[in-house]
Amino acid sequence: MRAYGWFLLACLLVAPARAQQPVEVDVELIIAVDVSRSMSPRELEIQRRGYAEALASDEVVGAIRDGPLGQVALAYLEWAGSGLQRVIVDWTLIRDRAGAKAFAARLTTQFDRSMRRTSISGAIAFAAPMFEDNGFRGLRRVIDISGDGPNNDGGPVTLARDAAVAKGIVINGLPLMTREGMGARWHLDDLDRYYVDCVTGGPGAFVIPVLEWDHFPQAVRRKLVLELAGRTPRPAEPTVVPANFHGQPPTYDCFIGEKIMRRIEREMD
Asked: How far is CA 218 from CA 51, 209, 225, 266, in A?
C-alpha cells in the first residue's frame, strides 16, 4: 500500500496542470493604430493621447460597466509596413475606471519613432491570431483599425480582412482624412469609402472618418463606446458610415494604394 501511495503521489507531481479557464468578457478589442512614416510626430502624439483620454473618459468607462458582464479585454497595437507591428499594451482586463486609467497611462509613457510604409493587411494578419489563447473569451471579438492611407505593402487587404471575418472577428475603421504630415502623395479624398469597401467587415462593422485632428478625441470616444457596447450606429448619426457586410462585392479599387506605390517607385527610378 505504501508503494501504491508513492506511485499516486508521483503521478500527481508529473501530471500537467489543468489549463486555467479563460476569463469571460463582453468584448475582446484590439486597437490597431497606424504609425507609418506618413504620420507626423504631432499626429502620432495626438493619436496616443487621444486614445488614452478616451479610455479614461466617463463615456467609455460607463460603456464598460453597462455591459452584460461589466468587463472587457483590451490590447493596443501599432503598425506600419508589412512585418512592422509592435504591441504597446498586451491583453489587459478592464472592469472599472482605475483599470481604464492604468491602461491609458501606459500609452503615454513613451512615444516611439514612426516606421515606413502602410500595410493594413499586415496589421490585420498580425492582430487576428492575438485572440487565440489570450486568456479571455469575449461575446465579441473586434479589431479597431485607424490609418491615414490605403494599403501599399504586404498582401491584399481584402484577403486579410476576409480571413479575419471568417473567424468571427469584426473589423471597424477610423480613417484619418487630414492633410497634415508627409502623406500628401497617399491622400485619398474618399478614404472613408476605401475603408468601407476594402478594410472593414463583419456583422455591424462601421467606419467613423476623422476630417480634422481637433475632432479626433471625440471620434475615438464615440467609436470605443459603440464597440464596447456592441451597438451598431444609427444611420442618422453624424460622420458614421456603416460598412458593407462581408461578402458584398467592393465598388472601390482596393489596390489603389499598391498602384500609387508602383507609380512613385517608377518616378524615383
From this structure: 10, 11, 11, 40
Residue at 141: amino acid letter = R
- What is the rounded distance in angstroms from the CA atom of residue 161 to the CA atom of residue 245? 11
pLDDT along the chain (269 residues), means of 10: 51 49 96 84 82 93 94 94 90 96 86 70 97 96 93 92 96 86 67 93 92 89 90 68 64 85 72
Distance set, CA 70 to CA 26, 175, 230 (Å): 7, 29, 13
- Cα-flanking dihedrals φ and ψ of residue 135, to 5°? 90, 5
Q: Which of 184, 180, 171 is nearest to 216 (CA)?
A: 180
Strands 72-79 and 23-34: parallel
pTM for the whole structure? 0.86
User: Three cell numbers at 6?
Assistant: 508513492
Asked whether the beta carbons of 89 and 104 are under 8 A apart, the reply is no
